[in-house]
Automatic annotation (TrEMBL):
GO molecular function, one term: hydrolase activity, acting on glycosyl bonds
Sorted UniProt keywords: Glycosidase, Hydrolase
Species whose genome carries this gene: Siccibacter colletis
Assigned EC number: 3.2.2.-
Domain Inosine/uridine-preferring nucleoside hydrolase: residue ranges: 5-293
A Pfam entry, by short name: IU_nuc_hydro
InterPro entries for the chain: I/U_nuclsd_hydro_CS (IPR015910), Inosine/uridine_hydrolase_dom (IPR001910), IUNH (IPR023186), Ribo_hydro-like (IPR036452)
Name the record gives this protein: Ribonucleoside hydrolase RihC
């Protein structure tokens, strides 16, 4: 039976690929998409999510989430994804609307009525997840797992010490890692290795409409380059759900720095158990890159 999931996202070019995988992997049952400000503003991430679902003719509902981090002003990644967040492709106009309830409320409603536990997949800043857990802690009983893209056991990619999603809302991330949820963290330790080759990228337009659309987006993506390969950060969270055997995980304690002048958003990953605290996450430390590429190739072929 397919695994029910909620995808919390800030599309974003690599988010678009992750959404495709969530929609078209037969192992997954995407029940709800929620949007958050991150790669670009909330207005743009929500518009992008609706455009992508319309492109794929999917009826999965969309709920709009937080427009700003919990306590800090928003910083975005338009320099990586383009001003729209999905530069490079002209999507067809549509009349789709978001749900009338905000994201954390829509998540709660789904969780409290689902007959089976639901997996949360968070590939943007963790603001919506923190709001859910703060306002509705009673729904945690029906959260099977939280799989997130974010953090790093080493250096950062937005600041010297912090990965982008964690750096945008450190306070939300700290709240989530204190929550007691079953957390799998797919951070830069694996996402920097999850690179699609130029040779594969060149084959996309001939595959199908999805391949043509993704190729157009990739030509505007600055997560690498078309000539050297592109890093698929967010796709790793979906890849873990579908093909966990590709990942090497380590149980450890993870905390998120919120106070440091230069280190806010840094994930302190206690790989050697020096802090004496119980593990609160499984951290992906390695990935079978060839296996990942084979899975991506098949996934895109399975898209319309």
């Amino acid at each position: 039976m397919a695994l029910p999931i909620i995808l919390d996202t800030d599309p974003g070019i690599d988010d678009a690929v992750a959404l495709a995988a969530a929609l078209f992997s037969p192992q997954l049952d995407l029940r709800l998409v929620t949007t958050v400000a991150g790669n670009v503003s909330l207005e743009k991430t929500t518009r992008n999510a609706l455009q992508l679902l319309h492109f794929w003719q999917s009826e999965v509902p969309v709920a709009q989430g937080a427009a700003t981090p919990l306590l800090r002003p928003l910083r975005d990644a338009a320099s990586v994804h383009g001003e729209s967040g999905l530069d490079g492709y002209d999507f067809i106009a549509h009349q789709r609307q978001v749900l009338t309830t905000p994201a954390f409320q829509a998540m709660r409603d789904l969780l409290m009525t689902s007959p089976e536990p639901v997996t949360l997949v968070a590939i943007g800043p963790l603001t919506n997840i923190a709001l859910l857990l703060t306002h509705y802690p009673e729904c945690a009983f029906n959260i099977r797992q939280l799989v997130l893209m974010g953090g790093s056991a080493g250096r950062g990619n937005f600041t010297p010490s912090a990965e982008f999603n964690m750096a945008i809302d450190p306070d939300a991330a700290a709240c989530v890692f204190r929550s007691g949820l079953d957390i799998v963290m797919c951070g830069l330790d694996v996402t920097h290795k999850a690179v699609l080759t130029p040779e594969f990228i060149c084959t996309l337009p001939a595959l199908n409409a999805s391949g043509r659309m993704l190729h157009a987006l990739f030509s505007h993506y600055r997560g690498g380059s078309m000539s050297t390969g592109l890093r698929m950060h967010d796709l790793c969270a979906i890849a873990y759900l579908v093909t966990p055997e590709l990942f090497t995980l380590q149980h450890c304690f993870v905390a998120v720095e919120t106070q440091g002048e230069y280190t806010a958003g840094a994930t302190v990953v206690d790989l050697d158990h020096r802090l004496g605290k119980p593990a609160n996450a499984r951290v992906a430390m390695d990935i079978n890159v060839e296996g990942f590429r084979e899975w991506v190739a098949q996934m895109v072929k399975d898209c319309p």
